[in-house]
Every structure is written in C-alpha cells, then in structure tokens.
C-alpha cells in the first residue's frame, strides 16, 4: 500500500535530493526519501538490538559472578570488533 503524505524539506535537503535524482542514483525525490527512511529504520532496529544486548549483558553481570576488569575489556573489544566487521560502527 502506498501513502502520499505531505512533507516539507529545507532548501538544502531538497537540493540534495534533486541532485541525487539528476545524477541518476534515484528515479525520484520520493525514492530518495524512501531510501532515507529505510536506512533510518534499519539504524533504529540495530540500536534497539544493541540496547537489548547491553541490557542482557548488564543483567548477567549483575546476577552472575564477578569478572576481572581485563576480562571485561576483552569482552568489550570483541563486541567492538564484531560491530566493526558488520559495518555498524566506524573504525
């Protein structure tokens, strides 16, 4: 189903969207906005998953045995490496 909402863009946003269309990267300004919203949706989902994982880690940490600072550092480094490998965090 397609919905046709009315939106407002700033002049720079509109120029940028038109530039993408004129360069052939997108077929229309609507396509540019759809892609932007899809990327934002994906970002939000990734952040929600990351937050859930961090909450789970904190819950385990609070209810489990105490680990050393070195072991915690290693776990954090592993998490960063996984995120960098997946492209969700800059190097």
UniProtKB/TrEMBL annotation:
Keyword Ribosomal protein belongs to the record: no
InterPro entries named in the record: ParD, ParD_sf, Ribbon_hlx_hlx
Stored Pfam families: ParD_antitoxin
GO BP terms in the entry: regulation of DNA-templated transcription
Entry annotated with the keyword Cell wall biogenesis/degradation: no
Transmembrane segments: none
Keywords: Toxin-antitoxin system
Signal peptide: none
Taxonomy, superkingdom: Bacteria
Name by which UniProt lists this protein: Antitoxin ParD1/3/4
């Amino acid at each position: 189903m397609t919905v046709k909402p009315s939106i407002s863009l700033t002049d720079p946003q509109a120029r940028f969207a038109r530039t993408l269309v004129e360069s052939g990267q997108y077929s229309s300004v609507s396509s540019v906005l759809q892609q932007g919203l899809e990327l934002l949706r994906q970002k939000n989902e990734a952040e929600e998953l990351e937050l859930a994982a961090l909450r789970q880690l904190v819950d385990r940490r609070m209810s489990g045995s105490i680990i050393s600072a070195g072991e915690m550092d290693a776990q954090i480094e592993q998490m960063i490496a996984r995120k960098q490998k997946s492209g969700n965090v800059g190097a």
